[in-house]
Amino acid sequence: xxxxxxxxxxxxxxxxxxxxxxLSTDPDDIRLSAGAEELGAWSATDTKVEPLGKxxxxxxxxxxxxxxxxxxxxxxxxxxxxxxxxxxxxxKAEKKVSVRKSEKEDAKRxxxxxxxxxxxxxxxGVVAEKEVLGKGLTFxxxxxxxxxxxxLVAISVTL
Length: 159
Fold this sequence. Notes:
The protein has three helices and seven strands, in the order βββββββααα. It is of the alpha+beta class. The protein folds into two domains: 78 residues, Pleckstrin-homology domain (PH domain)/Phosphotyrosine-binding domain (PTB) (PH-domain like, Roll), CATH 2.30.29; 34 residues. Strands 4-3-2-1-7-6-5 form a seven-stranded antiparallel β-sheet, with helices on one face. The chain is elongated, with a radius of gyration of 36 Å. The protein starts with a strand and ends with a helix. The mean pLDDT is 82.
């Protein structure tokens, strides 16, 4: 049965939007075309398709590798008899290392946060020491200012 899948083609390492292409499959051949031009045809036995994840497939066409992103990745994977996603890699030994690593990172972060808090407290103390008026005198100035404002309002109302 013949299938045609529209999508984009990139070469490995290429970082662009890719070339709009159609990858056609039948039991004997795989054909790649862009627009009206056929880019190539390969024997189905000389091709290998592997999922890379996120709907992208590595397609080895008789030694030539391309990255194909079909518009319908699930249907493409089914037609090519490959999984949609790559098999997960088991990393049991690395998990223990990453737990230890994250514990060290947490301890480092807590130490840095404590240092920042200490510096902020010290800076706040320096500001308090450098106050020009002090709390009592500031309170008196604000009180006298309020009394003067009240007196000015009273005078303006009587005029």
